[in-house]
What we know:
Largest sheet: 9 strands, mixed
Shape: globular
Number of strands: 17
Bound molecules: glyoxylic acid, manganese (II) ion
CATH architecture of the largest domain: 3-Layer(aba) Sandwich
Strand content: 25-35%
CATH class of the largest domain: Alpha Beta
Amino acid sequence: MNYQIDSSELSADLAAIAAYSSSPPPGVTRIVYSEADQHARAYLRERCREAGLELREDGLGNLFARWIGSEPELPAVASGSHIDAIPNSGRYDGTVGVVGALEAIRALRRAGVQPRRSIELLLFTSEEPTRFGVGCLGSRALSGALTAEQIQSLTDGEGYSLDEARNGAGFSAPLAQVQLPAGHYAAFVELHIEQGPSLETEGLPIGVVRAIAAPAAIRLVLRGQGGHAGAVLMPGRRDALLAGAEIALAVEHAALASGSPDTVATTGYFRIEPGAVNAIPSRAVLEIDIRDVAPEPRDLTLEAVHKAIDEICGRRFIEYELTLLNSDPPATCDPGVIEAIVAACHSTGLAYQMMVSRAYHDSLFMARICPTAMIFVPCKHGVSHRPDEYASPEDIVRGTAVLAETLARLAG
Ligand code: GLV
Ligand code: MN
Ligand code: MN
């Protein structure tokens, strides 16, 4: 059946949420628990209430909005994504999956569907690692991959603890209650923009994700010796930036030499102190992201980067402290949920391809606790994590139609 998806509602929700940003348009910046994040959450709570959903929030701020099924004791079917956005990015990453799930539920209700299983919209807290260094914070915690103690020990770049930050945003329930019990959900489906070029290149409206790549990230603190840029002669220097620069090049080299065309490695964060033109950098902080579809080449690259850091720092008399922020296994999507998505593509008459997600998603962790798969829609030139990220209203409607049909099939 083809459920009627309201394109203007979807576009209005995307535009309203994009306006809650701490950077000027077209860029979007929405860091977890910031004022912009809190406003966007308030907007979504209101929209969920208007849609007749029952709301619950846990101690991290994960939001659960439930449409009660005719057999409410059965495990629910869930769908959702995140609304936090990295600095100066776009309006579609994550948010499409949240407003898409909400519109899918509204469309099913308008069509008079009465599902057996409850259908639940999930808004995950902090899929992006921007503030606390760990990606998929909310879904990691739901899946039990992070304990309450590990969550409690997190701090942001300004020294605020996670507890201070979440309390400030109004979330104070015990973190020990965040993890979901086994069997809580019957299935989870996430709608997301592809963040890569293949659907656009192939001219296809839908990607059905069969696996999610393995991400790893490290934080590196380098300590050298500061000093006067004019007075300290070159031979005696211990410049933290120069060590970091060599390391960033070694990261690129390690990825290129991994032997796998799928290995990617990025030094996406590099900050120096004191940061003055006439002072030798005494301290540098780098964050390095390494991924592959398979864990082995990812781990070999990680090892090569570690060796290079050791060699470069030894040669330059730099002390270093390396923290492994995460190194997660890839996820395999569930054949039953994939089958439901494929059947939904057939009944909506939309062509699709099976694919791998190179970006990570909350689905990486939901796959640990329930049958999970993802629906991708094209984005222009494959661009994401940039202000010019764009997905057309037509493509978002198509993805939402497939999601609605999938949820109806899974909920019975
Ligand atoms: C998600 O934003 C990722 O970095 O893959
Ligand atoms: Mn992202
Ligand atoms: Mn995302």
